[in-house]
Automatic annotation (TrEMBL):
This is HMG box domain-containing protein. Gene3D superfamilies: High mobility group box domain. Residues 245-311 form the HMG box domain. Residues 114-124, 131-140 have a biased composition (Basic and acidic residues). PROSITE patterns: HMG_BOX_2. It comes from the Eukaryota. It comes from Aspergillus avenaceus. Transmembrane segments: none annotated. SMART domains: HMG. It holds the Pfam family HMG_box. InterPro entries: HMG_box_dom, HMG_box_dom_sf, HMGB.
């Protein structure tokens, strides 16, 4: 019986066709199939059964395929995430390496408070004083002149005597004028001689002082004096110098001088002469007026030529009129 049962069992095993499976090592076959299945899953190829159904059970192969497929998918997903992470970090690093715009430096505060109206007025007054000082320095100051009048000499001679009697300067000056009115003829003649001598001395000193400056300095001094006369209430006379270039005479003034020199207006006043000459000038024709215009052009040429020779520079387009000379 036992022999028969063994034979029956062997027959059953033969029906299952497991004889080949037990004829070779199972572990090696399973390992080889596992490797082949992993390679196919990584290359996304379709899985085909390597062995026939009769060689390996179907449930064993399906479990192994699923297990290795899921593991390979997880590994590929991890690789993708690491790659994407690297690209993001690289882009972030590029952004960080971009040079940033330098911030503009904030202006330093001086810490001073804005000037008040009183301070502004004081600064303006100081600037005006400085400009006046500069003008006066450019205007030049001629030497002091001695008294050239008899009356001035008489008062100045009687002033020391009046100061002995009167206490204040005003009272002393008034007393000197009263004493000057009582001088004798002999004293008057002496004062007249002294005045004449003083006049000659003043002329000599003035000419010497003028010659100590260049014509250009005298010209600039006269311009500064004209400016000071406009700014202040004091009259600044122009300096007298024969070396200065005379300004060109206009056409009307040439006609005026010519008509006065003819002697037709001897018994007329200056106001009437000016009105009469102005009417005659307006009544001239263009051909008659052309003569005086030509003389005016010659005056301009003369002025420009002498200006360059005397002052050493080009003349201004429109010269300023001269004020009264000293």
């Amino acid at each position: 019986m036992s022999l028969n049962l063994a034979r029956r069992g062997l027959g059953a095993l033969r029906g299952l066709q497991l004889s080949d499976a037990f004829s070779r090592p199972v572990r090696v076959a399973i390992a080889q199939t596992h490797v082949r299945r992993i390679c196919l899953s990584t290359f996304n190829q379709s899985l085909r059964p390597i062995s026939r159904a009769r060689q390996y059970p179907g449930f064993l192969s399906q479990r192994l395929v699923k297990a290795y497929a899921t593991s390979s998918d997880e590994k590929s997903a991890k690789k993708k995430t690491t790659k994407t992470g690297k690209t993001k970090s690289s882009t972030k690093s590029v952004k960080k390496t971009k040079p940033k715009a330098k911030p503009k430096p904030t202006p330093k505060r001086s810490g001073r408070k804005p000037a008040t109206e009183k301070q502004k007025e004081a600064a303006k007054a100081a600037k005006t004083r400085q400009s006046l000082k500069d003008l006066k320095a450019t205007a030049l100051e001629p030497p002091k002149r001695l008294a050239e009048r008899v009356w001035n000499l008489a008062v100045s001679s009687k002033l020391p005597e009046a100061q002995k009697v009167h206490k204040t300067q005003m009272e002393a000056f008034k007393g000197a004028t009263d004493l000057a009115k009582l001088i004798s003829e002999e004293e008057r003649e002496q004062f007249a001689k002294q005045a004449e001598a003083n006049r000659a001395t003043n002329e000599a000193e003035y000419e010497k002082w003028i010659k100590s400056h260049t014509p250009l300095q005298i010209k600039e001094a006269n311009q500064a004096r004209a400016r000071l006369t406009k700014i202040t209430n004091k009259k600044y006379f122009a300096l007298r110098d024969d070396r200065l270039v005379k300004r060109p005479t206009p056409a009307y003034m040439i006609f005026y001088i010519e008509r006065v020199e003819q002697g037709d207006f001897k018994h007329m006043q200056v106001k009437d002469i000016s009105a009469r000459v102005s009417e005659e000038w307006k009544g001239l024709t263009d051909s008659e007026r052309q003569k005086y215009i030509q003389l005016q052009n010659e005056e301009k040429e003369r002025y420009h030529r002498e200006y360059r020779e005397v002052y050493g520079e080009e003349p201004a387009s429109s010269p300023e009129p001269e004020s009264k000379t000293l």
